[in-house]
Amino acid sequence: MAEDRGFPLLRLQDLSHYYGDSRTLWDITLQLDVGDCLCLLGRNGVGKTSLARCILGLESTSGGRIDLCGEDITRLGVEQRVRRGIGYVPQGREIFPRLTVEENLLLPLTERRGNGIPEIVHELFPVLHQMRRRLGGDLSGGQQQQLAIGRALVLEPRLLVLDEPTEGIQPNVVGDISRAIRLLNERHGITVLLIEQKLGFVRHTARRFAIMDKGRVVADGAIEALDDDLVQRHLTV
What we know:
The chain has a single domain, classed as Rossmann fold. It is 32% helix and 27% strand. It has helices at 48-56, 78-83, 101-106, 119-124, 126-130, 141-153, 171-186, 199-205, 228-234, and strands at 8-19, 22-33, 37-41, 63-68, 71-72, 86-89, 159-163, 191-195, 208-213, 216-222. A six-stranded mixed sheet has the order 6-7-8-3-9-10, with helices on both faces. The chain has a four-stranded antiparallel sheet with strand order 2-1-4-5, with helices on one face.
């Protein structure tokens, strides 16, 4: 996929969203090229998760357009978007605690041509193979997060959206999650949209950033441009 880098994979144009009577997104315009790893930053409640859910189709937009690889997917349902290559790891992981690790991983295969769990899943997260017979609910928080990412990878996405992947994760696993994301992005060519709060993790993992405030994108750039002034103005509580 490296030869395709630099071409738009995901383009959001003037995207708006309401939650009841409250407007949560205001004319969001954002682009991810093939091979990007962009982190969406912002204080709690500024609309980051709403934006992710709009991209997947879990929330309806009230205006604007979403293009994936040049196709307008704004009115498509969730399953159609997933088939076109969007993988989603939600905040809180949402694995199935009463299914085994293997059953959790096999569940999405009804949406994918081909059989079996892709090798990349066990390559990145060997613990999932070691614990394949264990119930998902018996895993640690870090192992559940690896399972949630692995489940999204079963569908072989072009775009992987991860919402707060380090939330509630023990520090020794945070580094494993960062390495996995970089490998997916750099070696396997998967474009990544990351929503995250931990600045050390973000600087180590992402290539670019965009900061949201009150439902708008207020700053963006290369990760090296994420300086103390931007952090103080838009991220410090």
